[in-house]
Amino acid sequence: MFQILKILKNHSIVLILLILFMLFDLWLRYQTLSEVNSGIFPWVFGGDAWYNIHLVEQIIPNFPSYPWYDPMNQYPTGRINNWGPLFPLITAFICILGNSQTTTEIIRCSSFVPPLLSICMIPLAYVIGKKIIDTKAGLCSAFMIACISGEYQFRSMYGYPDHHLLESVLSTLFITLYIYLLIEFSRSDSQKFGISPKVVLLAVIAGVVYYAGIMNMPTMLLFAFIITLFTLLYPLFLHNSNAFQKLCLVNIISFGVFTLFFLLTGIHHQGFHLRDYSIGHVYIGLLLIIGNCFLFILSNLHKKKIRNILLVLLPLGILCIGIIYSKILDIWQILFDALYGFIFAARLDENIEELGMMVPGTTLYIYNLAIPLLVIGLILLIMRFHAQRRDYVFLSILWSVVLLGLSIQQARYQYYGAICATFLSGVALSWMSEKICQKWHKKTNNGPILFRSSYSSTISKIKICPIGLICMIIVLLLFAFLSFLPLNTYVTVDIPSKELYAEDWKSALLWMNDSTPNYGFDYHTIYSKNNFLYPKDVYTVGSGVNQGLKVLGIGKRIPSSSIFLGTYPSNEYTSHYNPDIDKKLDKKREKYFISSSDLFTDIIGADTTSAYEGSNNRILPLYSQIDSGHNLVLVANGLKDSFFKSLFARLYFFDGSEIQAKENNSVRYDEILINGKTYNLIQKNNPSGFSQILNTNGLRSRKTEIVSFNSTRSTINLPAISTFRLVYESSSVVSGKKADEIHHIKIFEHVKGHTIPGTGTIELPLVTNQGRNFTYRQQSVNNTFTLPYSTTNSPYDVHATGPYRIIETNETFEVDESQIEKYYI
Question: Which residues lie across from 672 on neighbouring strands?
Fold first, then answer.
C-alpha cells in the first residue's frame, strides 16, 4: 500500500492531467447527446449502428448467447453473421446492468459505450509515448488522441454504437504489451537465455488481447501481420540474438494462446475466409507458431550473426511464393486468396463508405497540425533508431508506417491510424520543447530527447523550461481548436442535413412496427441456421439500401435490401415496371415498399455518377460552360421517359394512378469528353469558347432528348399500377407546390387486388393519414379492372372517401377489405 501511495504521489500531476483529458474527451463525445435523444424516439447514426442495436436486442434476453445466424437479414437465406460478438456482448452486458429493456432504453444506453471506450485510449496513448520517448511525449499524445478529428472521433461519438472504437482499444493495447515485452528484454541481461515469468505472463495477456480483438472484428489480423513483419525484419536491423530468441518464444506463447482459445470458441463459419470466423484463423495461428519455432532454431544456429537467417528465409520465401502461384498445394492458394480478400476488402465492397480512400483536402482539414508533426516525429524516431538500435523503437516505426499507409488506402484504418498520428506528433512536440529550451540555454537534466533512455525516466526527473512549455501548450491548443472545427461542422451541419427527415423516419417505422402484420417468428429469439425454416406468412419490406437497417432496427421488420447487399436502389423499383416485376417482388416476398425522397436522391446519384451508359440512363445531367475554359456548371437534371416508367416514380410521385404526359422539353446537347468523362453540354447560350472546347476534347455526338424538369410532370402517358396501394405517408412535404404535394415518405402495400368486369376508366377518391386528398384512376384491361383499394373496412388510415366510379357510365362499386386478395397470408 505504501508503494502504491508513493507511486501516486510521484505521478500525481500526470494522473490529474490524464483525468482532465478524459473529462475533455467525454465532453467532446457528448456533443451529439441532444441529437440522439430529441424527438419521439432516440436516433443513432449510420446503418452499422442500427444493426448493432438489433444484435444487442437479441442478446439481452439470451445473454451471453450470440446470433451467429440472423434470419432478419438477407432473406431467403438469412445472414451468416461475420461481425464479432465481443462489442455487442459488452454493450448488452452494460444494458443489463442499466436495466435497459425497451428499444428506447437500449439505444440510449448503448450510445454511451463508444465514448467510454474512447477514454480508454488516453492512458494507452500516454503509456506508449512515455515508454518510447518520455512523459512529455506521452502527455501530448494523450491530449491529442482526445481531440483528434476524423473517422476516429466521429465513430466514437455518443450515438454511434459500433465496434470500431473497441478495435482501436484492443489493437493499441496489443502493441503496447509488445512494447513492454521488448523493453523487458532490454532491461534483462542480454546474455541470459530464457524468459522470466513476468514475460510469460505478458505474452499470455497479449495472446488473450489478440483473441479478444479477433472476436471483436477479424481485422485484428492486421496486427498479427505487423508482429510477423517485425519479427522477420528483426535480423536485418537488430543483432541481439538472445532478444530475437525471446521474441520468437513470446510469439509462440501469444499466438499459441490465441489459437487454443479460437479453436475452442471461435469457429462458426465454413471455409477459410479470414473476414469470417473460420478455421482459416487457426491455420494462420499455427503457421505463425511453426514459423517462429523455425526462426528460433535458426537463431540458435546463427547466434553470432543472426543476419544470416535472412540467407535462409529469402530462398524459402521465394519457394513459398512459387508454391502459391503454381497451386501445388491448394491450402496455400486458399490462404493467399483469403488474405488478399481481407487486406483489399475495398475491391469486394467498393460501395461501403469506410472502405474508400482518404481525400487529400479533407485529410488536411481534419488532421491539420498533426500532419507536419507526425512527419517530424517519424523522422525523429528513425534517427533515434539509427543511433540506438532499440527494438521497441523499430516496432513503433513499423506500426505507425503500416497503419498510416493503410489509412490512406482505406478510410476505415483511420480508427487504427489516429493513435499513430498522435504518438508521432507527441514525439515531435517533446523534441520541439527541448530544442526551444536548449536555444534559451535552459536544457533539461536528462539531455537531448533523441538519446535518452526512455524507460528509466520518471515524472520527478522531467524538467522543462517555461518557454518550451508555453510553446508546446500553444501548439496543442491550436490543434484542439482546429480539430474542433470539423466536429462542430459534423454536429451542427452534417448531422442535421443527413438526418433532416429523421422524425419522419421514426414515425413511419414506428407505425410499421405497430400497424403491419407479424412476419411469423420472434424478433428476439436466437435461431440456428441448421434448424430454422421461414414460416409461410413471412414477408419483407423494400426500401432504399441505406434505410434497410433502420427498417430492421426501428420497424422490427425484415428488410429486402441493406448495406450488406449493395448500395444502389433495387432494380425492381428503378427499372421499367411490367408484370414480371410483381413476380420478382413475390419471390422476395416484399409485402411493403417504403419510397422516399432519399431514394430519389440515390437514383439521381446512381445515374449521374456511374459510367456513361448513353440513353439507357434515367437521368440526363445537363451542363453549361461558364467561361472560355473547361469550367462547367450543372444546370439541371432532365428526367427521361425511362425515369417515369420506373415503379418508384409511378408510386412515389403519382400514387400508382394512371399518368398523363404534361411536360415535354426538347433539349439539344453535345456529348463532349473532358478528362475521360462524358458531359452533356447544352447548346443554348454557350460563350465563344464553346467551339474551342469541342475542338480540344472532341465531339462524341449531338443529340436531342425529350425530358421533364419536374418529377411530378411526366413526359409520357402510363397506365395505373393495380398491385400497390398507399397505406401511409409522413407529415413532411418535400415539393414546393400545393398542387403537387409530395410527402417525404410513402409506404405502399403490395397486393393482388380485386378483379371486377368493366370497361373504361374507373376512379376512387381517397384521403391519406395526413389529410391529403387524391384520386386513384385506372383504365380497364381486357374488359376488367383490378382494384387495389377497399372502400369499406380498410385497416389503414389511408382510406376511400366514396365508392369506385366508372367515369363513362357513372356506375359505382363498393369493395370490402375482405375482397382484396393479398400476398403472404
Answer: 679, 699
User: Is 70 exceeded by the pLDDT of residue 189?
Assistant: no
Q: What are phi and psi of 271, to 5 degrees?
A: 85, -165
Q: Which residues are CB-neighbours of 155 under 8 A, at least 6 positions away?
A: 114, 162, 164, 165, 415
328 in helix, strand or coil? coil
Residue 314 C-alpha cell reads as 529469402
Place of cell 465563344: 688
**Which pLDDT band holds residue 207 (cuts at 50, 70, 90)?**
very high
Decide if 177 contacts 131 (C-beta within 8 A).
no
**pLDDT value at residue 451:** 36
Cα(604)–Cα(331) distance, integer angstroms? 45
- Residue 183 grid coordinates: 523493453
pLDDT 10s digits, 524-534:
999 998 889 99
How many angstroms separate the Cα of 509 from the Cα of each of 51, 157, 174? Answer: 15, 24, 42
pLDDT score of 436 more than 60: yes
Helix (H), strand (E) counts: the chain: 30, 18
Q: What torsion do the CA atoms of 426, 431, 437, 443 make, to the nearest 10 degrees? A: 120
**Separation between Cα atoms, residue 708 and residue 28, nearest integer Å:** 47
Residue whose grid cell is 478495435: 167
- Sign of the Cα torsion 518, 522, 524, 528 reads negative
| pLDDT tens for each residue of 742-755 | 898 999 999 999 99
Asked whether the predicted pLDDT for residue 333 surpasses 90, the reply is no
Provide the percentage of residues in the chain whose pLDDT is more than 90: 35
The answer to whether the CB of 401 falls within 8 A of the CB of 375 is: no
- What is the predicted pLDDT for the residue at 574? 76
Q: Exposed (0-12), middle (13-18) or buried (19+): which is 343, by Cβ within 10 Å? A: middle
Q: Per this entry, what is the length of the chain?
A: 825
The per-residue pLDDT for 546 is 80
Closest by Cα among 629, 608, 640 to 686: 629
Q: Which residue has the higher pLDDT, 460 or 323?
A: 323
Query: Residue 590: enclosing H or E segment and its boundaries?
Result: strand 590-596
Report how far residue 172's alpha carbon sits from residue 167's, in angstroms, rounded to the nearest whole number. 8
Task: Answer whether 818's CB lies under 8 Å from 698's CB.
Answer: no
CA distance 187 to 455: 9
